[in-house]
Amino acid sequence: MNNNPYIAEKAKLIRITPETAIDSTFTIAWDKPVKPGQFLEISIPGAGEAPISISDFNDGELSMTIRKVGRVTGALFDMKEGDTLFARGPYGNGFEYNYYAGTNLKIIAGGTGLAPVKNLIKTFMEPRYVNSLEVLLGFKTPEDILFKNEVLSWVESATAILTVDNGNYDWKGNSGLITQYIPQLDLNKPQDCVCIVVGPPVMIKFVLADLLTRDVPRENIWVSFERNMSCGIGKCGHCKIDNTYICLDGPVFRLPDTMKLID
Amino acid sequence: MGYSLSKDQFNSLLDALKKSYTVYGPAVDPDKGNYSDTDRITYKKINSFDDLVLDMKTYFSPKEIVYPVREPLFHFSDGSFFVPHIDEKKIAILLRPCDINGFDRLDTVFLKNGPEEDFYYKRRRKNIRFFMIECAEGFDNCWCVSMNANRTDMYDVAFRFGKEILADVKNEEFIPYLVGFPQTEVDIQFIEKNSIEVKVPEIGSISPESFDLEMWNEYTSRCIACGRCNTSCITCSCFTVQDVACGTEGRMAERRRRWAGCQLNGFTDMAGGHSYRSKNGEKMRFKTMHKINDFHRRFGKHQCVGCGRCDDVCPQYISFARCINTLSEVVAERGKNEQ
Question: Within an 8 Å CB–CB cutoff, is residue B71 touching chain A?
Fold first, then answer.
């Protein structure tokens, strides 16, 4: 049945790492090549199938950071380490390392938008890949911060600026919307900067508007789209916008290619 | 090769075909009409010439013969997948040129969009043969000519159903079934003018402003998102995958797909409750653009084949033909103002 793209393969659940009260990272055994920004169709027979973005991968392991929001993710949260789930993919174009190598890269991520770029951040923290890397991260509250230990270490090493919309008494870090911290990024030579923006639609909208007023060229900005694909292979129609199938042509796009995509 | 048959001879042809083919065609579904004591014309198995209805359009298209409303993808039991077998008997469908072009559009999405072919569509499609019904006059509510979908050479046999029945055989597979019937020249005709003409906006004339037109708001108040236009359309191919568990342990389940449609609520729902195109006018705009603009930009031909079933079935009397024409007028008017 290897010509049947709907058949999923068994994948062993190696580890479940709680991230916040409602998000956990599920790590499965995985040895197929993947790129950051791609997604898998994850299924639990009886519950269903859902597209899940890949947050990290290395050495035969692949991680997905998931919020319990529906039937499939609900069933995932009922699983335990050692259980078997099913996966097919990877699908989507993902982020191509080549496009960012040697650039002054800014990665701006809000909330769960961090998941699809986490591996990219880790890779590009190796100085030999990019000329410079600055990361700007925003979450709603301190309790919503994903990959907390890693994120705090990025802040420590001055790679990342972290902010939360609403701090609390214990929170010693930055607070306020992510757009307030864009001035702290080095955008003095906007032509030389490449920006990746991922997050909820409203955050993307305001961050893009801000970057454009700072003269970052549109073609230097990359975004990732989120849609609920049912098939992942360009048949089911759910993710289509205009003449573009997000699952085939995306989810990662250069900004000018998204200007004509109107939902 | 052309042949001439009487009705009796056509029936004996059907009998001969029966061993190797199931023949589908437009027929009466008694008492299944939308009103009490009315019939519905739909696609059914055909056993004799008298089963065929040739003077009325079918309510549904023949697409479900190849792409069922609900289809099991596989059954799952204790860690293994079982893909259900299908009846491998060949199927011949009596259908009109617009619908053959409609199947070409389905082929495009299922077999040519992206690197993967759709396993389930392909395994049924390869057993399908097209018996084209010559359609030189069309029906009241068709605009196939405007969509360039009035002609096709993608048929295996074409029939002219007149006083005598003429058959033009293209696929040699069917010659053995017709050998013995009187040979004759058959010049199959295609309709050249419908009673409805639709002007499709030029590709490239649709701008981002076209998405914001006042005309879409009208559909927000009129369309009720019932999805009949999607289900009756020969070219609508969207689906949703879902699991049905047997028992509570989740050890046995069926994964199936079922038709979905851009006009229905919930089509764009995402995890966490976000969705797109929540107004019915926005859905209508999306469908319109897909059928007469976006598909063409991706695949080089319009998706809509002008069969007119969406207009026949709409409970709100929304006319898609009218919608396309209005869009053309508004876009042309706007173009003039900009010059």
Answer: no
Per-residue DSSP letter, A152? H
Given CB atoms, is B143 within the 8 Å cutoff of chain A?
no
Query: Do A243 and B240 lie within an 8 Å CB cutoff?
Result: no
| B15 pLDDT tier (thresholds 50, 70, 90) | very high
Q: Please name the residues between 255 and 284 in chain B that touch chain A, using a CB distance below 8 Å.
A: 255, 257, 260, 262, 267-274, 276-277, 282
Residue keyed to tokens 């007469």: B292
| Average pLDDT, integer, range B139-166 | 96
DSSP string, A17-83: EE-SSSEEEEEEE--S---TT-EEEEEETTTEEEEEE--EEETTEEEEEEE--SHHHHHHHT--TT-
Query: Is B239:A237 a contact under the CB 8 Å cutoff?
Result: yes
- Count how many pairs of residues, chain A against chain B, have C-beta atoms within 8 Å: 129
Q: Do B260 and A238 touch (CB under 8 A)?
A: yes
**Which residue of chain B is at minimal alpha-carbon distance from A85?**
B79
* Closest-CA residue to A226 (of A9, A50, A23): A50
Which segments of chain A have a pLDDT < 50? 1
- ipTM, 2 dp: 0.92
Query: What is the per-residue pLDDT across A106-117, written as a single tens digit (0 to 9) for each?
Result: 999 999 999 999
Which pTM value belongs to this model?
0.94
> According to the model, what pLDDT value does residue A1 have?
46
Which residues lie below 8 Å from residue B88, measured CB to CB, with a gap of 6+? Answer: B127
